[in-house]
Amino acid sequence: MQQIASSSSSTAPTASAPLWRCACSIAYECVLLFGVYWIAGYLYLTLTRQTFPLASPHTHYFAAYIAVTFAIYFGYFWSHGGQTVAMKAWDVRLETADGRRLSWARAMARYAISWGAAVLVAAILTWGLQQLADPAARSVVALLFPLVLGCIVTAAFLQARLGRSGQFLHDQWLGLRLVSAPPKPKPAKAVASESN
Questions:
Q1: What is the largest CA-CA distance in the chain?
Q2: Helix or strand or coil: residue 149?
Q3: What is the end-to-end Cα distance of the chain in Å, rounded?
């Protein structure tokens, strides 16, 4: 166990990743997820021979398919090195509290708690706002979903910023942490061969 922890960090203990880097990583992740969504959506539409707007049962199937696709994306990267492409770009790594890699089950639990809970709460709040609105304005109120979701994510960042550990609540519950992960230096032999 000592060897695993020391191999994931150089000589000094790993520090918590600054929240500004986590925020930048999330913003970049959204850009990358658009590509994942587009490719997955294209495959779904091609295989089911559907077009937009989707027929009634297919809207639910498509939403579930996208949720599973994102779960596989995050689960794979978090359990294989602790970094998605965006996290690598911003030098952020996800690991257990004792410095080890995540298991697939823990990665899925983090995905379900972090994204699932935020989307579920935003959907419930938006639905509640729709029930309070005039029936003619309910479709317009549904457009508030991204704003409500943004408020929930902002609240999570505030909790992490004001908390003693500097970590998100869902990571604390699961015994995980986001740490700074600067790129590993290249071996001297590789650097010398590149300069020639």
A1: 71
A2: helix
A3: 40
Q: Which two tokens stand for residue 66?
A: 């996208």
Q: Which two tokens stand for residue 30?
A: 């959204």
Query: 28 CB contacts (<8 Å, ≥6 apart)?
Result: 86, 89, 90
pTM, entire model: 0.76
List pLDDT tens digits, range 100-158. 999 999 999 999 998 888 888 888 888 888 888 887 777 777 788 888 888 888 888 88
13 in Cβ contact with 181 (< 8 Å): no
CA neighbours closer than 13 Å in the CB half-sphere of residue 125: 16
53 by DSSP, 3-state: which?
coil
pLDDT level of residue 193 (50, 70, 90 thresholds): low
The C-alpha atoms of residue 73 and residue 110 are separated, in whole angstroms, by: 13
CA separation for the pair 173, 169 (Å, rounded) = 6
Neighbouring C-alpha atoms within 13 Å toward the C-beta of 1: 4
Place of tokens 């704003």: 147
Domain ranges in the chain?
A: 15-178
Cβ(180)–Cβ(20) under 8 Å? no
Strand, coil or helix: 98: coil
> How many separate helices (H) and strands (E) can be counted in the chain?
10, 2
Q: How far from 89 is each of 83, 172, 183, CA to CA, in Å?
A: 9, 24, 9
- Token readout for 20 is 């500004």
Q: Which amino acid does the sequence have at 53?
A: P
